[in-house]
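dumping this here so i dont lose it
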């Protein structure tokens, strides 16, 4: 996915600039997972990444801008969707990918921090919305293909089906101390697939 943004941290040429960005974003992710947005300090990130403070301040300027670029990079680097040939197989692959991400000690903590920050910081919220738009757009074709195969009603809101797969996993992550295992991922996929087949994602006016 390309972007026309020219905001802080958005220039992505190769060579040293790309290596600096990679190091800084990795350091920012570590710091965010450890301390949350409130404890994200640009000078600390520069120290962790072993780059000059001036570079970090000039390219990103604020912690929120750094988080926005981190989310953009995460969207770019996410694994592509799996095509199994069936709706349930595709949704299960999606759910298991989400589960692996959220169950990872670093990534799970990182997403918790970003979600918390997004509730009170508009720039972080906008970056988070863009991240999920990219991920939903990546997986939406598997539901569209299921509609084309006749597995689902023609008017199914394909993007909502993808969102419904992830929602129970995020809810479990944020509201319980229960582990996120593959059984939880498979249940989420099965529930979304069953609801889609029953027409739950067909808009009332369709």
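and the seq i came up w/
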């Amino acid at each position: 996915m390309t972007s026309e943004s020219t905001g802080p941290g958005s220039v992505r040429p190769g060579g040293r600039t790309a290596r600096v960005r990679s190091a800084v974003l990795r350091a920012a992710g570590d710091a965010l997972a450890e301390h949350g947005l409130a404890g994200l300090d640009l000078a600390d990130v520069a120290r962790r990444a072993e780059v000059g403070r001036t570079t970090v301040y000039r390219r990103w300027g604020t912690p929120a801008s750094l988080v926005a670029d981190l989310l953009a990079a995460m969207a770019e680097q996410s694994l592509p969707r799996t095509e199994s040939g069936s709706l349930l197989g595709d949704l299960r692959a999606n759910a298991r990918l989400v589960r692996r991400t959220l169950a990872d000690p670093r990534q799970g903590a990182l997403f918790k921090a970003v979600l918390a920050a997004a509730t009170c910081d508009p720039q972080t919220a906008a970056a988070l919305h863009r991240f999920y738009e990219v991920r939903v757009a990546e997986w939406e074709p598997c539901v569209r293909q299921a509609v084309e195969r006749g597995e689902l009603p023609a008017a199914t809101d394909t993007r909502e089906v993808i969102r419904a797969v992830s929602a129970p996993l995020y809810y479990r992550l944020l509201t319980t101390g229960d582990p996120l295992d593959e059984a939880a991922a498979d249940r989420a996929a099965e529930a979304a697939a069953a609801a889609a087949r029953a027409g739950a994602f067909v808009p009332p006016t369709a």
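The chain has two domains: 16-62, 78-197.
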